[in-house]
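Following the same procedure, the fold was encoded as tokens, giving this record:
***
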Amino acid sequence: MFELPFADPGAPELRSASRFMGWIARKQLRVVVSGACFGILWMTSQAAIPLALGGALGAMVRRDKSEVIEWSLVLLVLGVLQAVAGILRHRRAVANFLHAVTRVEQLIARHAGYLGGDLARRVASGEVASLGSTDVERIGDALDVTARTAGGIVSYVAVSVVLLVVSRPLGAVVVLGVPVCMALVVPLVKPLERRQTAERERRAEASSLASDTVAGLRVLRGLGGERVFAARFERSSEQVADASIRTAILQSHLDGAQVLLPGALVVGVTWLGAHFAVRGSISPGELVAFYASAAFLLLPMQTFVEAASRWTAALVASRRVIAVLSMDRTITDPVSIAATGEPDFLAWTLTDELSEVAIEPRVFTAVVPSTPEEGSALLDRLGRFEDPPDGLAVRLGRTSLADLPVRQLRRHVVVLERSPMQMTMKVAEVLVAAGARTAEILDASAATELVQDLPEGRDTELPERWRSLSGGQRQRLALAQALAGDPDVLLLDDPTSAVDAHTEAAIADRLRRIRAGRTTVVTTTSPLLLARADRVILLDERVVAVGTHAELLGREERYRDVVLRGTEEQSKSAATANARNARHGTDASEQSESEQSEKREQSEQSRRTER
């Protein structure tokens, strides 16, 4: 068996599902061919056993002891050959499955890395999970059955030839009966493919809905949205059940046909053979051989039907895989890249021509957008995760970011999204880029105590999307991860929306200090962050005003409305809570960080729902 996984899974054929399956088979041709050889040896030796039994029975009728011994030795050799070939055939079948599954998984993983953030924007997480589990296994199952299919074809031909030599009428019944049975089964294959496709789509939708619901369960509970999403998932599950039942009904017809039709053929051959034996046209030994051979043909026929079913499912799965592998990045490298060396991101102003925002180098800049979406879109353009409309550009000095290699850009510019998609990893892996600066990075993101309080400290493994952490804890650890790389330009999308005011103030002070000499951009409406920024930009589609926090408070009414509105609302809420809790000897300011972060998440979800 070859070493797995592969160093290079190769460049797949994506023009059609059948070509994709053919490409996979060619990439593991040695395993497929060797499996087919063992499958042929295994099934032909099995097919020869009934003929040898017939010969032995004829020798016994003739009371020829030496011939009985000869046939007995033949049966022994065939039995041993069948056992050995069966073991080797099974090993090759498993190898076929593993090679196909591993190759497709590597293709998906490699392309997911190539697409980067585009994948999450264009394909639901549940769909990707389904590709990496259900679909790849169906493709592997199709390659698994090739060894038995090859053996079935050769053994069917061999048995048919032998039966035609012994008795043309009986041989003709067998030779013609099997294709007729297959012809009756084939019409079920295409409808089954359509139903499997529909079922696959319903399952992907339900999986995505379940994944999104689990990820936002904390917020849903706070908003009372559990029932709404439970009802949605119930409806989606019912659709999956309906599609599964429709598929299962047709699959049951197919499974029943692969038993009924070969069984009818065996009954017919047996009846006809018995009729010929009574007439003396064939001997009792030949009758036994015919019956056993006809019964054996059940195996290749069932294999043919199973192969048709598995390849149908594999074609459906391949189309889904091809749909993802055919996606290209929204952002690509320029056609020709000038050899100008590494650009100095700390020497030039970063300008977005669409909004007219100019980010000065080595300055801590805060952007106050009119909506959260506007701020996120600005950072996506500055980090070149999106390009502005035709005719406009984001420029570093006079150079358009579109003229720079994407890989080069990613080394210098890091964007921390509002809700980043985090993978399963240990805390130490989150901070691996920090190196000797780990303690300083954790302090700057106010995450030192957070990590210390985890069950295994830095060795604690965080689940997907870091669901074991509260909203504020996730933000602080994600900020630490962004700071660890020490990029020239760091773009932060509202990085403190889920932390309490005390923690937010600490982060604002330390962030400014640790990013000294680097370019930092923060989208926020928090006065705590704005007060510590070197430069504040008020944005409403285009730049409205630029200055310090104090300057804008003094001369821009719109700025005061945006920035102080949230503060006043929080103050009123805190005052109400303090008055309510005073009777119990508590103060609202003593709320735990997780409670406050949940409230912030709930508020954010409410705004999204309203929009």
